[in-house]
């Protein structure tokens, strides 16, 4: 068994906007994680901590259970493969065959159940896991994002950013903001915890990015209390959570997080442009954050100030393995209404 469930990812200057004079934007490439997204950090950390603290290991009867058919499921499967643990993933019928194959290739057992994530999750927790437990298996349930231990794992991204900026001789005083995409709030919560650890949470604002149709944080902030979306319509399916984790909502209010909502069309154009510029295929959920690399003026509007040549912004390219280039092309040709889906589906 190994603890290498995630990797330190590069922090590289963005050269995507040749006309850009300011600020200096650095991209954190989380798509290079073993599970192809930042979720390798938190989900891997949760699984590793659970196994390390298990009271009895002699019989080796351990199994991890995830109910996500997207990036969280792949992260769980990949982490278990690294650690030598059995992984079981329940996915809904709507999960792409390509994604199921990736999860299976990572060594997980996949069961397809139900029309949406809620059905798969209920089956996993109420039938599959109890059945395994009756056979003496020590089981762990992995939620896609709403778990404090997962957030702690995600917080390692801030440790790396701080170290990498120091390695580049960039004083932390020049860091004017961190941009991250927000779905259910797992990554955002991890960033907040990481900034708290380094005494930076009151000094460095987080720019939380969503897309129209999956903008549960923005709508909750406007409402003054958390809401639940009845329908999810954005092409950024990895942002498709009907609710925001309570810690994420409370932190966003307390630390004056800057909430930005983008249009699907703009994000898809960014994904295509990023693919052409770098050769990397990214999901719309990731493209939402990368959009700021091409349009730094949105940063100034969100922060309410002008940014100079010495100012630094870090953009978290969260990664993801759910789309192909053809998917992006197809999405640009379809009306948004075709992406409406049950809010119980989660990645």
Per-chain topology:
Blueprint: E1 11-13, E2 24-29, H1 39-52, E3 62-66, H2 71-83, E4 86-91, H3 97-105, E5 109-112, H4 117-134, E6 138-142, H5 148-154, H6 156-167, E7 175-181, H7 186-197, E8 206-211, H8 216-223, H9 246-254, E9 258-262, H10 264-278, H11 284-294, H12 296-303, E10 312-317, H13 325-332
Parallel strand pairs: 2-10, 3-4, 3-6, 4-5, 7-8, 7-10, 8-9
Antiparallel strand pairs: 1-2
Helix pairs in contact: 1-2, 1-5, 2-3, 5-7, 6-7, 10-11, 10-13, 11-12
Structural overview:
By secondary structure, the chain is an alpha/beta fold. Helix content is 41%, strand content 15%. The chain has helices at residues 39-52, 71-83, 97-105, 117-134, 148-154, 156-167, 186-197, 216-223, 246-254, 264-278, 284-294, 296-303, 325-332, and strands spanning 11-13, 24-29, 62-66, 86-91, 109-112, 138-142, 175-181, 206-211, 258-262, 312-317. α1 (39-52) packs across α2 (71-83), α1 crosses α5 (148-154) and α2 runs parallel beside α3. The model is unreliable at 336-340 (pLDDT under 50).
Strand count, sense and barrel status of the largest sheet are:
6 strands, mixed
Overall helicity: 40-55%
Per DSSP E runs of 2 or more residues, the count of β-strands stands at 10
Annotated CATH topology of the largest domain: Rossmann fold
EC number: 4.3.1.17
Family: Belongs to the serine/threonine dehydratase family.
Main location: cytoplasm
Enzyme class: lyase
